[in-house]
Amino acid sequence: MPEQSQAARPHQSERPPLSERPMIEIRNVTRSYGAFKALDDATLTIREGEFFSLLGPSGCGKTTLLRMIAGFDNPTTGSIAVGGQPMEGIPANRRPTNMVFQSYAIFPHLNVEQNVAYGLKRLKLEGSEERRRVEEALAQVSLTGLGKRLATELSGGQRQRVALARALVMRPKVLLLDEPLSALDKKLREQMQVELRRLQQAVGITFILVTHDQYEALAMSDRIAVMFGGKIAQVASPKEIYQRPVNRQVADFLGGMNFVKAEIVEENGASLVVDTLGFGRVKTDKPKAFVRNGGAATLGIRPERLRVLWDNATAKFEVAGKVVERHYFGEITHLIVEIPGLEKPLSVTETNDFGADDIPVGTSIRLAYDPEALVAMAD
Amino acid sequence: MTAAAEGSPARRMTRARRNALLQSEPVQGFALISPTFLYALILLVLPILVVIAHSFWTQNYLTIDRTFTLENYRIALTEPIYRDLLWRSLYISLMVSFFTVVLAYPIAYFISFHGGRHKSLWLFLITIPFWTSYLLRVMSWKVILGYNGVLNSGLMGLGIIDEPSTALLYNSTAVIITLTHAWAAFAILPIFVSLEKVDRTLVEAAKDLGDGPLRSFLRVTLPLSVPGIISAALIVMIPTVGDYVTPKLVGGKDGVMIANAIQAQFGKASNWPLGAALSVTTMLIVTLIAGTMVLIIRAAQRLAR
């Protein structure tokens, strides 16, 4: 595999290998509303202690799936098991899951402490034990000392932390997060991404995050399920999803991708040899889910995997073209480069360390690439 | 004419000042509310002032003696008959508001939480009884509760009682039943509105945190709909204290309320000042009770936190 790309995982941190024990097993789950299928035959296993993301555009069925795990909705067909226990017929209040709602759903008639203690009341703990657990949960989300505040006196970020503490204090087997960061501003969102990730590693609870933000999913998750139109398109680690998307839709959703038409010359167990107009004959790894559709395929390459070759530098693999557009983004520059023979110009992301922001439009340049960065996709 | 006016600096000044005055926000505001304000003044404030004034006067057959006296209030507050009537009126109105809220809440809850796409249809259906006259609705209760009424014959037909009960009609219970029915719709609306404002995800959150349907209702939905309950109770209580027709028709001698006494003073007894004093006393007590109710519930809410 090629080395990890910089833009892909800004907050990646090392962690011990995960347990292989399944925590959630979703088997052939379909949820229909009349003729419309919000979720179409989804099968998925989420492991214990995993930070798992359901990623997709709005209406792809990710929230429907989350709500069915929580027990707010029921599959039309198929089954869901949590911790080995089938969930059919078990209402939300008796499931070992807790949810952080998109709107946070903080009880407005209760203060922070009472909100956090809400679910504990049923457990009939001793007063001191209850207080201790509330304090601990508030400390976990850095809200110590704000226990007496009313929900109306909190900022958006603080409300989100209360919602998190209220769910964590229940010590669920699975914590469900329904777009928890979408209402926060960019800076706070990025900070919360890091914190959520740290928190998950500290408590070791399985987290399932629903999001439409690909960077959020890439930065936080152990694994991601990408969903489109009620179907799960790909389940893999962030790195694999980013670098080896199974189809154009997934590739497109996970950031920029140059698509190049290709003709299959040879196909065997693990590899694929294709002919392209711009990149010539290329041998690539065959994706696991590759299904041949006639003789045509698509090759993709991320814009940051194309490098500008300066002066007389040469590379083993290069293409030549002409800069037709240049867009400046501070630390990086986007170049649109026309390659003879390619129907669409390539988009190239280059850091500005060597002056990519000064390349005049109309310049002829050469681009280096690693053939391993070229990924074959089913059309 | 205009040219001359423009020419004089002094007049230009006054006009400018007048324009400024007309364009000032308070003046424009008063101008906007003046029709309703006048209406309220003439039809609401003036009659009350007239009543208050009368309560400090005395009447000698047909002439009003305008010397200031507190005699009417002494009678209104110390005469056992008026005291009893006032207590009974308050008791009846409190019972009515209690039962109305208790009966209206489930209906409002059903419409708000399970009304689906037909919420407005349900609300519309609730107003159907109001298409007939209030008197007709009171009379129909006479038919139900009377000696040979629907309820008595029904109970006799079932063999539960041997002879018609006279305990159903012509007492304060009959007044409470009739008024509760009459005011139900007025209580449903404010409760419905406050239930509509309860964020449904809060109920889901309660469920997610382990509450069953009853517990999540008691811990989230009910506390959050308290404002609607208060307004419903007040909307029913305030006018029922002074209700006059219902006790007259179904109350008999045990169901007489303070408004009947007030009517008698203004009518047959020809003692307007005493009637006025009784009215003012009732008004003050109702205001007091309504005020304390609001304060108590607010304090209770704060304590419950």
Explain the layout of strands and helices.
The complex is a heterodimer of chains A (379) and B (305).
Chain A: E1 22-33, E2 36-47, E3 51-55, H1 62-70, E4 77-82, E5 85-86, E6 97-100, H2 112-117, H3 127-140, H4 156-168, E7 174-178, H5 186-203, E8 206-211, H6 214-220, E9 223-228, E10 231-236, H7 238-243, H8 248-253, E11 258-267, E12 271-276, E13 280-285, E14 296-301, E15 306-309, E16 318-328, E17 332-338, E18 346-351, E19 364-369, E20 375-377
Parallel strand pairs in A: 3-8, 3-9, 6-7, 7-8
Antiparallel strand pairs in A: 1-2, 1-4, 4-5, 9-10, 11-12, 11-14, 12-13, 14-20, 15-19, 16-17, 16-19, 17-18
Helix pairs in contact in A: 3-4
Chain B: H1 2-7, H2 9-23, H3 25-55, E1 58-60, E2 63-65, H4 71-78, H5 80-114, H6 119-126, H7 134-145, H8 150-157, H9 172-196, H10 200-208, H11 213-224, H12 226-241, H13 245-251, H14 258-266, H15 272-304
Antiparallel strand pairs in B: 1-2
Helix pairs in contact in B: 3-15, 4-15, 5-9, 5-12, 7-9, 7-13, 9-12, 9-13, 10-11, 12-15, 14-15
